[in-house]
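Progress narrative, Year 2. Work on Peptidyl-prolyl cis-trans isomerase E from Carex littledalei advanced from sequence curation to structure prediction during this period.
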Amino acid sequence: MNGQVQKNTLYVGGLAEEVDEKILHAAFVPFGEIKDVKTPLDQATQKHRSFGFVTFLEREDAAAAMDNMDGAEMYGRVLTVNYAFPEKIKGGEQGWAAQPIWADADTWFERQQQEEEMKRLEAEQKAAMQEAERIHLQKMAAEREGEKDDDTSSVDPMAMAEAKALNQNTS
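Result:
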């Protein structure tokens, strides 16, 4: 599970069947102002699954409620009260349990487009790097050729004068 806890939302486990959101609210309201109370329902039985969530407006109130209510008895059952983990039940961006199957489609398409854009940019960058390397290698080869040309074109002036004199003597 995700390690990040929600400091103002409490998980309340061990609820008896008789406990509903009103009763849960009434049990926790002495510790501070409550923003929300939820008892997720079992889809088959339409009864809560013996746990719920209480969200306080203030973190301090949630901490006080947890300290006082963890291990307390309600309707003959011992409660377990801890900080709640973020709601992410079966996957998807926000959990699939409370959403239709297509709810995640928009974010999936967005992620796909972002991935394709990243691949395109990476390919462009790779092509640009290869082109830059090719140009650099051509430049280096041209410089080497230029050095060779320079060696052959820089003829000794004395040798040229001798060749000129020989040509005049033979003609």
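The chain has four helices and six strands. The longest strand covers residues 6-13.
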